[in-house]
Amino acid sequence: MDRRAFLRGAAALVSAVSCASAGKAQAAKTRLILLGTGGGPRPRKASSASAQVIISNNTAYVIDCGNGVARQLVFADVALRTVRHIFLTHQHSDHNADYGNLIWLAWAAGLATRVDTWGPPPLKKMTRLFFEMNATDIDSRIANEGRVPLLPLVHVHELRAGGLVMRDENVKVTATLVNHPPLVPAFAYRFDTADRSIVISGDTTRSDNLVTLAQGAEVLVHAVLYTPALDRLVARVPNATALRASIMANQTSVEDAGWVAQAAGVKTLVLSHFVPADDPEITDQMWIDAARTHFRGSVIVGKDLMEI
Ligand SMILES: [Zn+2]
Predict the structure, then answer these.
(1) Residue 4 banded pLDDT, cuts 50, 70, 90
(2) What is the pLDDT of residues 203-216, one digit of tens each?
(3) Distance from the CA of 109 to the center of ligand 1, in angstroms?
(4) What is the whole-number distance in angstroms between the Cα of residue 92 and the centre of ligand 1?
(5) Cα-to-centroid distance, 60 and ligand 1 (Å)
(6) What is the pLDDT of residues 169-185, one digit of tens each?
């Protein structure tokens, strides 16, 4: 090999190495993946129930555990054993149905490290009863498959007020109370990492507390309601009158979600927890146009498994 060929080879090697380290730097960037974007507990073909994951330094922070959250993490290529913290915004089934299942199935998939869970009462009782209900499986896998005991891994923290929730080497998490009657308390969460600030609204009416929490954030994921379609939604169910009144009293219209995003000065508003979740007459453009009634930043119509 002559000197010039050697130098070319060396240059190629250097550039391959720097590509690899650039790749590593990219992997360290905080990721937000929407796991489920449909509102309401009714299982649907079109979208999964509420859940999202934030990944920082290969550590997964899961926010809400709607039905199918463990499988959605698998579809998103997030290793279940990397689940480290779980946050529930409130105790409605479209946000918590698979809370216990996520921990249990992640453990069956190899999770062997501590998991902290955070959310409104009765989170401790729910956790205790869930593991009690499933003790047959858990005990048999510890005895027969050599798995570490599951219960000592799980640390439950009930939240009753807003403020600092937790902080570790990757993220600072703060919460605020939002208004989602009749469930009290209900929370929105903010995640600040070295490179990003992400707010998850949970379910709420238009919330001044959320405006304060989301101040200057890069991304606000907000639950939204398309009010003109509500009558079509409730027409399909026998308890229509009560359901309509309940939705109107505890959700935010997509126009008001835009208002909150504008008031908070966020860069990007991500629409999610769509109510209705699967009305073919509402196009993405209709959601965007309604959000832009008050909001001047960028609007994303959230989809299951979308990374933002
Ligand atoms: Zn709810």
Answers:
(1) low
(2) 999 999 999 999 99
(3) 29
(4) 5
(5) 23
(6) 999 999 999 999 999 99
- The predicted-structure confidence for 242-295, as pLDDT tens digits, reads as follows 888 888 889 999 999 999 999 999 999 999 999 999 888 999 999 999 999 999
Separation of first and last alpha carbons in the chain: 47
Which residues make beta-bridge pairs with 61?
54, 85
